[in-house]
Give the backbone structure.
Amino acid sequence: MIALVGSAGVLLALVSAVALVVQGIRCYLSDGTPAASLRLPVIGLLVGAIVAMGALEIALLRNDFSLEYVARNHARATPLLFTIAGAWAALEGSIVLWGLILAGYTTWVFRRLRGRDRVGAAALAVMGTVGVFFFGLMASAANPFRTLAEVPADGLGANPLLQNHILMAIHPPVLYLGYVGMTVPFAFAIAALVSGDGTTAWLERTRRWTLIAWSFLSLGIVLGGWWSYEVLGWGGFWAWDPVENASFLPWLTATAFIHSAVVQRRRGMLQAWNVALIIGTFSLTILGTFLTRSGVVASVHSFTQSAVGPALLGFLLVVVVGGFGLFAARGHLVASSPRLDSLASREGVFLLNNLLLTLFAFVVLVGTIYPMVLEAFTGDRVSVGAPWFDRSAIPIALVLLLAMGIGPMTPYRVARPAVLWRRVRLPLQVAAATAAVVVVAGLRPITVVTTVALAAFVVSGILRHAHEVIRSRPGGYLGGLARLPGSDPGYWGGMIAHVGVALVAVAIAFSGSFGVRQEITLVVGESAPFEGYTLTYRSPFLRQEPNRTVIGASIELRRGDRLLGTLEPRLNQYPNQVQAIPTPSVRTGFGEDVYLSLVRIGQGDATVTVDAFRFPLMWLLWLGGLTVFAGGIRSYVGRRKSSNLPAFEAAGV
Amino acid sequence: MKRYRLFVIAMLGLLAVLVGFLVANIRGDLVYYKTPTEVVNDPASASAGRFRLGGLVVAGSVAESATDVTFAVTDGTTTLQVDHVGAPQQLFREGIGVVVEGTWDGTLFHSDSMIIKHDEQYRTEEGGVYTPDSRYPTP
């Protein structure tokens, strides 16, 4: 019954998406039809997507094991939160979530159309096309409403790795809000190409969606790293795994896009480049979906096991060939004429930022798809080691950090050395002083010193500017500080995000250089030193929790005589699952985290072996990530003041 | 797009050089993955350096000492002996899928790193093709 309702929802959405494409194209061609004629298909798309998602949730909540999806990914004992999250914990459900978010964005775009909006109608037709693909996938290869002839009494339960931590309920929707959101600027860029509209209208109109999508993509990546750190127990947050790279690639090009979009809006430059960037970004989101959803990462030979892989690959080809083909044929229509006045200008630094970010994305892309290409041609199965990525990424990232500091201080058009020097002097002094302090404090690795100095440069540059702007305005200092972001949300939101990136960079440099791993074996009652701490093995424990059985070891953590806490690295055994899941225990501190991951509990000899890790400043990484998100959202929320002058010039600096 | 043609050609050339550089650089950091059958079929390349070996732990083959654990892994057709230095993980047991990393001396695989493969569903453990292990579940 519920399967029928769900399938009807998918079908309604599919038909509506087709209608949206047809009606959108007609609307674009006819010139006379108001965009309001698209109302019915848009409503159909949204209702269909909601019905499909709702049916899936109801089936999960009602333990309806007649659905294959529910039987595979849910059990009666699954807690409520993970029952709800079960709707996106596996392939078919995640496509439904994708479709629902796409329908949501489509509706939002529709509500912003006014009168006879040909470009808007064309953009909706593009979004409809994407919808046709994903709802078509749901109706065929990735059908979540497939039923079982014999209804089992209980299901297999959710993937234990996914029901092990609350972050797994949040991370996918957040990431998808980012991924799918990139469809909106992509659709408008295609519409601008088709109609040969060389103005900045498409950028202005899609600004809010671009910023929202970018913010959620940033947050999603950080949450993913956090989950990996808290759950997987290998002792890290980022390993350049293809699954991680899949989310990072579009983030890099999207970041380039939101920066070059500023140049286009302010100075009318980089028009064609922006169109190419957003086509690339959208292609990378589809590539990411292909990489994570088709099984191609495990082996190129496993991806044809389901029709989802080839379908996604086909769609990727359509997007890349269609998008860039259209760009090659009609790109000159949207190309801008103004030339760069001088490379030493804000535009010049933005250009550098764009080159670095796309280079970064390109390097990561090569490392990510190289194993697949090699396997396809030679049959050799390989993975690219993290050292290669580190070696390639760190220099690019450091130069990016430098550009991030210089950029906001550089005036538009032409940067006169005197002006630049006045702005750069103080941050340079702060950076030099910070570097000196770091070296005196005994931190030697060159990457750490450089990163900390550059981060200090970025942050002090922003603070200096903020201070100057606040002082130049009437009113109290604190009030001025509070009003500051609202005076130019686009600019100051961006600066908040910059501070976040600087924090993230420092945290990555510290954990990369000073992370320590040590394997320790203890007998019950025994203590062992670890990096200035003392670990004491109290006892093993066996605990029955509602949804799982936990085997673990209680280990006391002391510094000197002070008891800091008891860590419980453990194995979670879920019913219906063959294997238990090792889960680390983390004590987060201001200076550093102590992280214990269970290797084994000895059977006869009362021993425990743990992998003990020390990671400095990890909280800075999560805080930095949240700051980036907050900055992105801040720059969207506020409305611009009427003044079109860049903040620097307006402040008279 | 005439005014861009030279630019595009230059960029493509630059990209080609970059790819060449990146790929030439990648060789040293590649971790090869082999099954026992592949090792036996091509012993020369298997002896050349470190690689990952994947298979199922053969029942009755596990022997532990103070510092090592020795066992046999199989892919269903070929079985190889492995000597792993260090304490095996809690999940290590007969019949489970493992990926070990180390060197092959022609008769014995010397491992210093072991990953237990996570099987997400019930799965008949009958061997078959093994794949490089990702840390992530593939839904």
